[in-house]
Automatic annotation (TrEMBL):
Keywords: ATP-binding, Ligase, Menaquinone biosynthesis, Nucleotide-binding
GO biological process: menaquinone biosynthetic process
Catalytic activity entry: 2-succinylbenzoate + ATP + CoA = 2-succinylbenzoyl-CoA + AMP + diphosphate
Superkingdom field: Bacteria
PROSITE patterns: AMP_BINDING
Location of the AMP-dependent synthetase/ligase domain: 10-355
Purpose of the protein: Converts 2-succinylbenzoate (OSB) to 2-succinylbenzoyl-CoA (OSB-CoA).
Recorded GO MF terms: ATP binding; o-succinylbenzoate-CoA ligase activity
Entry's family note: Belongs to the ATP-dependent AMP-binding enzyme family. MenE subfamily.
Protein name: 2-succinylbenzoate--CoA ligase
Stretches assigned to the AMP-binding enzyme C-terminal domain: 400-474
Its EC number(s): 6.2.1.26
Pfam family, one: AMP-binding
Source organism: Halobacillus halophilus (strain ATCC 35676 / DSM 2266 / JCM 20832 / KCTC 3685 / LMG 17431 / NBRC 102448 / NCIMB 2269)
Length: 492
């Protein structure tokens, strides 16, 4: 057994019962006392449905104000939550239900039909399933059934990695991983009683889920926006006292386009920007508008951010993900400052391993990402090892080319991947989303030659309606060619 602490929702009910835990733009408001009461009533209902301590309960649900109630209810019961990505196909979901040995499936309103399809698949396990909003909450008769303490070594959640190589694997997060991730973030960003974090990322991803954890660990309000809508979000920042938001690049672009000439109010302290490398022109634009962008680096295995760049350093270190958070260690598998190598991390927020896979012997974790530290120890993430293109023996990093391309007038987004080439082995090819009309490829090539070595300039440019992204909005470079193919077939 590990270190134990009081159940964090009980603790917030003791310290801040009237403080708002959750609010939505539509007017839902719930304080910590109400959140705890509803979570306990739901825990009672789940027990009645046969869910026991140690069960693996899958959530396949869109963001909603029911979601946090289920998270805490399952925690009170002592079950492990398996968070499923609602964008997956039935086949992918069946694999995960089997792999995670799920005992029960809980769906959202919008995912019920997909869940039924999944459970009808031949190899799907026979498990009970029910819809979040259809469960009547029962009055709690005996509080002794429910956890009063949290064991920091106990596995609380499992989330599947995007599985860019082979089958996806379930990352196991203990209560301690989530706890230390939230504490490390607080030591970096500071917390205040008036903090209000806008949550628009999917809660089934670590980036969204970690905001729910921060809320219950700090006693902080979450302003929940179920679907990303830049107008609603900018209005919430302006009018509703939002102090923090977590976004990925494509969301930041949309927020800034919507903001136009406007500027954010002084109470807005932090735009936490993760999800991969960021085009430099976008960061320059944010700097000129005085937007407090904290660039961050993290992954499912690190329970969200593990390195973050503070705004104090942002303008001098544009493009850096900062330094490792106070509880984390991070080093590059390469001894020379400024040279690219694999990023290796260690810390109490790093997952101990994957479900149904042998646990790691080492205490450190090899991320599979490439980066370097400058002479002052600031991290620059260059790219995924798996996305690297090797052209004529030279390493080519797609993110670097994408950053240049998005600086060209009319290019909204760019994705770059490798294509087999008889002479060079592989060459880069670019896929562009443009604002209107066609872009002159000759001019674009000339523009690239100004910033990039010849071998890095894309050999082909393709215009495409939208880039393939996963649910956390990460660009899936390996799917660029098939996305182009699909669009062409659709046109014919």
């Amino acid at each position: 057994m590990g270190e134990k602490i009081p159940h964090w929702l009980d603790k917030q009910n003791e310290l801040n019962p009237d403080h708002i835990a959750l609010e939505t733009p539509e007017g839902t408001v719930m304080n910590f006392n109400e959140l705890r009461r509803e979570s306990l009533k739901m825990a009672e209902s789940l027990l009645e449905k046969g869910i026991k301590p140690g069960d693996h309960v899958a959530l396949l649900a869109e963001n909603s104000s029911e979601f946090p109630i289920y998270i805490h209810a399952l925690s009170y019961v002592g079950a492990t939550i398996v968070l499923l990505n609602i964008r997956l196909t039935p086949n992918e979901l069946v694999y995960q239900l089997n792999d995670a040995q799920v005992n029960c499936l809980i769906t959202g309103k919008q995912t019920e039909v997909k869940a039924l399809e999944v459970l009808e698949e031949a190899e799907a396990p026979v498990i009970p399933a029910f819809r979040m909003d259809k469960v009547a909450r029962k009055a709690v008769t005996d509080r002794t059934h429910f956890s009063k303490e949290i064991d920091l070594d106990q596995v609380f959640t499992m989330m599947y990695t995007s599985g860019t190589t082979g089958r996806p694997k379930a990352v196991m997060h203990t209560y301690g991983n989530h706890w230390y991730s939230a504490i490390a973030s607080a030591l970096n960003l500071g917390t205040g009683s008036k903090d209000k974090w806008l949550l628009c990322l999917p809660m089934f991803h670590v980036s969204g889920f970690s905001v729910l954890m921060k809320s219950v660990i700090y006693g902080m309000t979450v302003h929940l926006v179920n679907n990303f809508d830049e107008r609603v979000i900018n209005e919430s920042i302006m009018e509703r006292g939002v102090t923090h938001i977590s976004v990925v690049t494509v969301m930041m672009q949309r927020l800034m386009n919507n903001l136009q000439e406007g500027i954010y109010p002084e109470h807005f302290r932090c735009m936490l920007l993760g999800g991969g490398p960021v085009p430099e022109p976008l960061l320059q634009q944010a700097a000129t508008k005085g937007i407090p962008v904290f660039q961050t680096y993290g992954m499912t295995e690190t329970s969200s951010q593990i390195a973050t760049l503070s705004p104090e350093s942002a303008n001098q270190k544009i493009g850096s993900a900062g330094k490792p958070l106070s509880l984390a260690q991070l080093w590059i598998d390469n001894n020379n400052a400024g040279e690219v190598g694999e990023i290796i991390v260690k810390g109490p927020m790093v997952s101990s391993g994957y479900y149904n896979h042998p646990s790691r012997a080492e205490t450190y974790f090899r991320t599979g990402d490439l980066g370097y530290k400058d002479s002052e120890g600031f991290l620059y993430v260059v790219d995924r090892v798996k996305d690297m293109i090797i052209s004529g023996g030279e390493n080519v990093y797609p993110a670097e080319i994408e950053s240049v391309l998005t600086g060209y007038p009319g290019v909204i987004e760019a994705g770059v991947t490798g294509m087999k080439d008889d002479k060079w082995g592989e060459v880069p090819v670019a896929f562009l989303v443009v604002d209107n009309g066609r872009i002159n490829q000759e001019n674009l090539s000339q523009f690239c030659y100004k910033s990039l070595a010849k071998y890095k300039v894309p050999k082909e440019f393709h215009q495409i309606q939208q880039l393939p992204r996963n649910a956390s909005n990460k660009l899936m470079r390996r799917e660029l060619f098939s996305a182009l193919e699909k669009e062409r077939n659709h046109e014919h």
